[in-house]
Amino acid sequence: MKKTALVFIALLLAVGFISCAKPPNPKEQLALPLKITAKMLGSDSIFQAEITETECRVTFSGSDALSDTVLVLSPDGNTATAGGFSRSVPNGIFPPQEMLFNALKLLNSEQASGTSTENGMKYAIDETEIMVYYDKKTGVLTGIETEESGRRFKFTVLSLEPYEAQSNGAG
With contact defined as beta carbons under 8 Å apart, do 128 and 146 qualify? Predict the structure, then answer.
């Protein structure tokens, strides 16, 4: 009888700890450098972005026209490479990925402080609004929505993992 009571108490404590678990911290989950696999709402095109404070390297996959295209966004200029051909591209040519890159840089800034909502965390930084969605039961980050200058993009997050930026070998 004592063993049954002890097991029952242990189960109650475990349930209590699980139900009192604090919500996930999106800023910790989205700390740069980061590798994110996502797709934009309304699109079947999946992309992977390796993001640091200064560069975003986006690789598109799937069966659409951007398949096997690599886009590099940086302050030094943007470059798109496809089929061995590379060229400079102006800002604004890939607005969803550019806004995601900007949103993640802002979330990693000192000025980022959010408010909890029913579905996640909301951040307003400068003129950018960022909503980070997560599953409250598991703490898994499920989506990111960003709006800037009247443009809004929502992404389904398929995976997140820390990213170790590679050295360019110079120096």
Answer: yes
pLDDT tens by residue, the chain, 171 residues:
556 544 455 555 555 544 445 566 777 889 999 999 999 998 888 999 999 999 999 999 876 778 888 999 998 899 999 988 999 999 888 899 999 999 999 999 887 888 999 889 999 988 899 999 999 888 899 999 999 989 999 999 999 999 887 665 444
Distance CA 138, CA 53 (A): 28
Q: Which amino acid makes up residue 68?
A: D
Number of domains in the chain: 1
In a domain, 3, yes or no: no
Domain-embedded: residue 14: no
Q: Establish if 33 belongs to a structural domain.
A: yes
162 exposure class (CB count in 10 Å sphere: 0-12, 13-18, 19+): exposed
Nearest-angstrom CA–CA distance, 63 and 159: 20
Asked if residue 130 is part of any domain, the answer here is yes
Q: What is the CATH number of the domain that holds 81?
A: 2.50.20
Contacts within 8 Å (CB) and 24+ apart, 151-154: 151/95, 151/99, 153/40, 153/41, 153/95, 153/96, 153/99, 153/100, 154/40, 154/41
